[in-house]
Amino acid sequence: MTNTKQLFSDTCNRLPVSIEVDQLKKQFGRFVVLDNISLKIEPGEIFVLMGPSGSGKSVFLDLLAGLSKPSSGRLSINQEDLQYVKKTKKYVMGLVFQSGALFNSMTIFDNLALYLREHRLFNEREIRSRVTQMLDMLTLKGVSQIMPSELSGGMRKRVALARGLLMEPDILLFDEPTSELDPITAASIIELIGYVNKQLRITTLIVSHDILLAQTIGHHIALLHNGFIQEIYTPQTLPQSSRSFVRNFLNPTIDLNHPRFLPRRHENKIIG
Ligand SMILES: Nc1ncnc2c1ncn2[C@@H]1O[C@H](COP(=O)(O)OP(=O)(O)OP(=O)(O)O)[C@@H](O)[C@H]1O
Ligand SMILES: [Mg+2]
After folding, report:
1. CA 126, CA 128: separation in Å to the nearest integer?
2. pLDDT in tens, the chain (272 residues)
3. Residue 51 CA: which ligand 1 atom is closest?
4. Does the pTM exceed 0.85?
5. Residue 224: nearest ligand to its CA?
6. Is the beta carbon of 180 within 6 A of some atom in ligand 1?
7. Is 152 domain-assigned?
8. What span, in angstroms and rounded, lies between the C-alpha atoms of 139 and 228?
9. Which domain holds residue 181?
10. Strand order, beta sheet including 228-233
11. Which amino acid residue places its CA nearest to atom 16 of ligand 1?
12. Which ligand has its closest atom nearest to the C-alpha of 28?
């Protein structure tokens, strides 16, 4: 396997950064998705933001990536305002989207080389060498000349991770890195993210519903519920929480005698 530290000589020389979120609010019209969220992501850690579907995880990620603006509140990197950081390109963010967000008309190689070419970071020979080593490191040898549509879901996630890492980011943001994967492929992605974090100490935010991911590689874990984050947990304290929402999220009850989707009696009456 390629030596990670050799491949990331620049990243290894940089100090990991922190992310500060202060009284963050995001609403669409009158619909408040995120309400007064404050938290700190420590330099070099993996922070996992969990929550049910529709709770606002992707909205939070988009705000942090600078893809949308908060309704109020402040986001900063190393205590510097996110807008300023984006404008000055002071820190690099690697964003790994849920779907992979690869360009379908380009080969995997060209997808991976795109950022390095666009930003003229290296000459073509160096780009070739970096992309090849990255594919090797992520056990993706042999896919460089194929198109994204020919990849399996697990490969697509690894290619998306490769693209994020090739940017030599100060911050890595993941949206559901293990969704739609079988448990074994999901475990290999979890291992990979944990391995990269241990080697490079890139500050990482993962939004996910994956409890296994949170408990195996998360340093801190937060649960979004009704727009709020009530507490920050560690993998040890999360299962001990007495909050009913947390307990139910970790161990949802399935009651076959009372399926939630059946029409209620009064609804029947209206229809009848
Ligand atoms: N641009 C938008 N305009 C209006 N509402 C939006 C917009 N983006 C997201 N929302 C709403 O915000 C809420 C949170 O959406 P979000 O995509 O963040 O959920 P999520 O927690 O990522 O869910 P999932 O786990 O299913 O990916 C949803 O009710 C969604 O409809
Ligand atoms: Mg989402």
Report:
1. 5
2. 556 666 666 666 778 999 999 999 999 999 999 999 999 999 999 999 999 889 999 999 999 999 899 999 999 999 999 999 888 888 989 888 776 678 889 999 999 999 889 887 788 999 999 899 888 888 888 898 999 999 888 888 889 888 988 888 999 999 999 988 889 888 988 998 998 899 889 999 999 999 999 999 999 999 999 899 988 999 999 999 999 989 998 988 887 777 666 665 554 444 43
3. 21
4. yes
5. 1
6. no
7. no
8. 39
9. 4-92+168-271
10. 93-96, 171-175, 203-207, 46-50, 220-225, 228-233
11. 56
12. 1
